[in-house]
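Intended use. Records like the one below are meant for learning the mapping from a protein sequence to its folded structure. Do not use them to infer anything beyond what is encoded.
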Amino acid sequence: MSWFTKVFGGKKDSTSSPTTDDNPGVEPGATEQQLPASDADEVLPEDNRSLLLQLISKSGLTMGVDLAKVTLPTFILEPRSLLQKLSDTVVHPEFFSTIADGATPEQRMALVCRWYMSAYHVRPKGTKKPYNPVLGETFQARYTTTATTTSSAAVPPPPSASSSSSSSATGARGEHSGANGNVSVHWVSQQVSHHPPVSAFFARSLDGRTVMQGTFAPKSKFLGNSAASMGGGAFRLYLPEHREVYYLTWPNVYVRGVLFGTLLMEIGGDVTITCPASGVQASLTFETKGYFSGKHHAVKGKIQRIAAPASAGSPALSPRAASHPAPVPLATVDGLWISKVDISTLPAGLAAGMTNVCFDKLALHQTIAQLTILEPFDAELNNAMPEVCRMYSSQHVWAGLTTALERNDQTLATEAKNEVEERQRTLRTRRKDESIDFVPSLFRQTDPNNVVGWEYVGADNVAIPE
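Structure written out for the chain above:
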């Protein structure tokens, strides 16, 4: 039984779509009416709108149809791969690297929430989607920022000396700042499956005090005047010195105004962050604007204790085996994920030593860390074994398309995109004809029946307990 099945109650993945009685498959509270221009992320030119409508008509799209079966025009593409977009989760390495500094489990959960909230404000101009990665594609990078770029919001103090005796494998305290005062996170991702599409990823702070691993396996659906990417997959965040594993899920992404009106991207749905070792859980709800009420980009939630902490030497308690008769509220989460989210302590949280924290985009001295792309394309490997193509970088795969989009040359972009797709069709045919099974170079499948069943096996890998 995989970790995902044990923690999230037997679901194979979290790609099911929320429904309402009036509009099946649409996030509750979502709007299908035409949006005012003031709310829009983008207003499509009439030529682009007409082309999009023609493609939808020719494809015979109906409610709930998988958009992966439809070839979309290049003008809706963001000039980077999904593998790079997923790395937005660590564009604030100062938040990711310092989670272990929380003195109590409650503080650490608040810091996990702050880091999680900091990933979503990075968006392209307009409503765009990243490239669908090809099988075997990789994106490896290092995100670095100076330690002084941390938000001015209150942060819990580090643990006392008596509680800071971490394992030698995690490095000495303070190393997350590096010798030059920088905070760095190493990111690795690879497309490990094509049907169904699964992207696997791994991230590690410079000192090894924070480690993350997981998968993203979206299902795109047509919902009338909206399109949705249902956030399948899940991931784990590991703090070795505290022996804590946090289990996290993805929200859904909606694009409104596909057929008429103005375009708007919204995030919707429920997200759960659970730490069985401490018995603390965060429940977040990304709210979509209702017809008569609400506002765009809102997120609300709560942090609460749902079980007693696991005692030393005993297995961690499952969230489904809570020893408390009722959850104990510790903090509330409230704000806008595009700008500022506050995590405010309740009386029970104060008793547990929590401190208010927040993610405030405007208060950051540097919004996004410096990105250094690693691992260039290995031309010798793939020219020698083109039928396998176990590793090649996003930058190599999509170089032609990215250049064309930056020049706003849609004709050249379409040609470049078609070249990539034709090469992949040729490789699939060759693998099938020669009975070759594709084997990813950086991740190993641990559970063939579960999209989250992938483990990183590359350099600096860390075994994360299930």
